[in-house]
Specification:
Largest sheet: 7 strands, parallel
InterPro entries: DgcN-like, DgcN-like_C, DgcN-like_N, P-loop_NTPase
Strand content: 15-25%
Structural class: alpha/beta
Order of helices and strands: EHEHEHEHEHEEHEHEHEHEEEHEHEHHH
Helix content: 25-40%
Organism: Waterburya agarophytonicola KI4
Mean pLDDT: 93
Protein name: DUF1611 domain-containing protein
Number of strands: 15
Shape: globular
Strand order of the largest sheet: 9-8-10-7-11-14-15
Distance between the termini: 46 Å
Radius of gyration: 21 Å
């Protein structure tokens, strides 16, 4: 049975296409749950969201305000999604007013912040008054439903691949989603385990927003999600979305992911044009070599490929970086938004021959291997 998507407008004021607008960007690129009908960002009003993100129209308009969105859209969206992911925990007063306004219009509220709108007295009262729902994506499960590590991950006998990164907001989720889609398209049954709010909003069946959990349960929840995906789906491969970076001094998420899913390999996402860590301008970015060494030191696994973010780089620069990394590190390297996932799939097939046997082979290749001339 096909479940109809809910329509949604995504609020991302002055952040769309930037680091703190990653939730909005992810939903604009892909969502099995929502049909995104507009983005709210007054700094980009009148533009096309796809062109702003990927230089390709997707006919999702960017509006100056909620009022203009509702004036122009033919139908009232089902949902108002808070699409920013700021470091701060509490939203400003002006944004509260917009959420209340959306509820008075009859829109459900989808919230990916650590600030739970459903526990806010003013929001809860307005939601009840207007007959709308508030969904806090990051709200953790009840204590009785949380899991500690059990060791059952050792029973998973298909490849588990973690898509980690060297920083926050550098494209880990995008690469994981794109790779998951590409694998399934060629007949390799792949399941993506989500570890953050955006992938859950996109419709991932398995996973939880791990940065909202008590640390005691992070590793167990990741293990449980991978084991459930294995037992219920019987996939050929399981991909696990990464968070932050193993080396990041502010966050522990990637360490928990490594321990919880015990991956058979890691795809490492890296933004070579970034000089300082996202939201921390005093912290220089690590080198990709140091991150690889740290991953290997923590977990008995290997980085098997590199995926690049092309932010602040020209096409010539990204091609030069790809060639340099492949020559120096001997690892297949690509930018999935520009060149697709063929190199990553090729690397996985070489390392795990069982995957190659699962491919539905067309008469002529549909995903050519990108090569550097």
């Amino acid at each position: 049975m096909v479940i109809a998507k809910k329509t949604a407008v995504v609020y991302c004021e002055k952040q769309f296409g930037l680091m703190d607008g990653k939730t909005a960007a992810g939903l604009v690129r892909h969502s099995k749950t929502y049909n995104i009908v507009g983005v709210i960002d007054s700094s980009l009003a009148g533009k096309d969201a796809g062109e702003e993100l990927d230089n390709a129209k997707n006919y999702i308009p960017i509006f100056a305000s909620l009022e203009s969105a509702l004036d122009i859209l033919q139908d009232l969206p089902d949902c108002y999604i808070y699409g920013k992911a700021p470091l701060e925990a509490v939203i400003p007063v002006a944004e509260r007013t917009l959420i209340l306004q959306a509820m008075t219009e009859g829109m459900d509220i989808i919230n990916g912040l650590h600030q739970f709108f459903s526990e806010d007295d003013e929001f809860a009262e307005m939601a009840e008054k207007c007959g709308v729902e508030i969904q806090d994506i990051r709200k953790p499960p009840e204590l009785k439903d949380l899991h500690v590590f059990t060791g059952k991950i050792s029973q998973v006998n298909v490849p588990v691949i973690a898509v980690l990164g060297t920083d926050c907001a550098c494209g880990k989720m995008t690469t994981a989603v794109k790779l998951n889609q590409a694998l399934n398209k060629i007949g390799i049954k792949s399941v993506l385990v989500a570890t953050g709010q955006t992938a859950i909003m996109q419709g991932a069946t398995y996973g939880v927003s791990i940065d909202a959990l008590v640390s005691q349960f992070v590793i167990g929840e990741i293990e449980n999600a991978v084991v459930r995906a294995f037992e219920e789906e019987r996939p050929d491969i399981i991909l696990v979305e990464g968070q932050s970076a193993v080396s990041h001094p502010a966050f522990m998420s990637s360490v928990g992911i490594l321990k919880g899913c015990m991956p058979d390999g890691v795809i490492l996402q890296h933004p070579p044009g970034r000089k300082f860590r996202c939201d921390f301008p005093h912290l220089p970015m690590p080198s990709i070599v140091s991150e690889i060494m740290l991953i290997k030191a923590i977990c008995q696994t290997q980085v098997i490929a590199i995926a690049l973010s092309h932010e602040d780089l020209t096409e010539t620069e990204i091609l030069k970086t790809i060639k340099s990394y492949e020559n120096r590190l001997l690892l297949p390297t690509t930018d999935v938004l520009t060149y697709g996932c063929s190199k990553l799939i090729h690397a996985l097939s070489n390392l795990f021959p069982s995957l190659d046997r699962q491919k539905v082979r067309p008469k002529s290749p549909t995903i050519p291997l990108f090569t550097i001339g």
